[in-house]
Please model this.
Amino acid sequence: MKRVSLTQYLVEEQRLHSNIPASLRLLIEVVARACKTISHSVGKGALGDILGSANTENIQGEVQKKLDVISNEILLEANEWGGHLAAMASEEMESIHPIPNRYPMGEYMLLFDPLDGSSNIDVNVSIGTIFSVLKAPEGMTQPTEADFMQAGSQQVAAGYAVYGPQTMLVLTTGNGVNCFTLDREMGSWVLTQKDMQIPEETKEFAINMSNQRHWHPPVTRYVDEMLAGKTGPRGKDFNMRWIASMVADVHRILNRGGIFMYPADQRDPSQPGKLRLMYEANPMAFIVEQAGGAATDGRQRILDIAPQKLHQRVPVFLGSKSEVERVTSYHQE
Ligand code: AHG
Ligand code: MN
Ligand code: MN
Ligand code: MN
Model:
């Protein structure tokens, strides 16, 4: 079988569809290279002094793991000097990171969750990196947070790397979703799944059930109906999976269907859900829609939300289309 590399895929995609200008291609390749470096660190584990806590807190009040900080630095360093970016933003940085003056300023803006699934780092369970690419507004000179406040539908590229038994990169530039596997010996990304499609029907759901007592009624109803099994209103048995790394849960859903939920609940109205719109929900929603699935906040399409703050949180329902439509309709009743 002929092997298609990430570079070859991107070049041919540009030739066929003109949707990946050279500067965007180089930007994606730099992000992919940074993910390769993160994957290498992840693989070292205790041998690389990367496990455990960094004993610092991020702006969301989460205790940072060493690997959260290391991955953030790897992505910043890799992307600073290429000339494709105007600014970056990350889960692990309070405010945006404009490209330093010593480097040329480019036309794109990069957002990332450098290390997703922090609670799984120290127990050798799959974790990942999520990224989103926006275009800088026309005529922008000095980037500010306001320049990032674009709806997810404006993303020009999004992807994630999953560091699991294999390291994989899943990517969309708005023309379907493709998956690349890292050839660890050669150090190259090889196209291994073309045009991924989320199966429409599913018998699997993913939610953190420990929050059940806090849920809003539409979520309770939706999950209760699935739990009722064959004799319930759904007429079939459902299975539950919860990895607690969004990348790994989404990757399973891309491959065999299912629905992923991190709803808002009744605890704190100022914190709608846990996941962050700009670098978790938006890129995943773009990927899921490009793979034929759906993604909402329970009421509207995630990609249509007008962002207000860099680190804003949002309820997330994504995956197989018919399931996302069902739970969304329960919110509208
Ligand atoms: P992060 O590690 O980047 O802070 O994100 C963690 C997120 C997401 O990956 C996962 O789906 C969710 O948190 C797990 O939450 P629970 O600990 O509530 O299960
Ligand atoms: Mn975190
Ligand atoms: Mn995350
Ligand atoms: Mn993270």
About this structure: Residues 113, 116, 246, 280 surround manganese (II) ion (ligand 3) (CB under 6 Å). The mean pLDDT is 97. The chain has two domains: 6-193, 204-332.
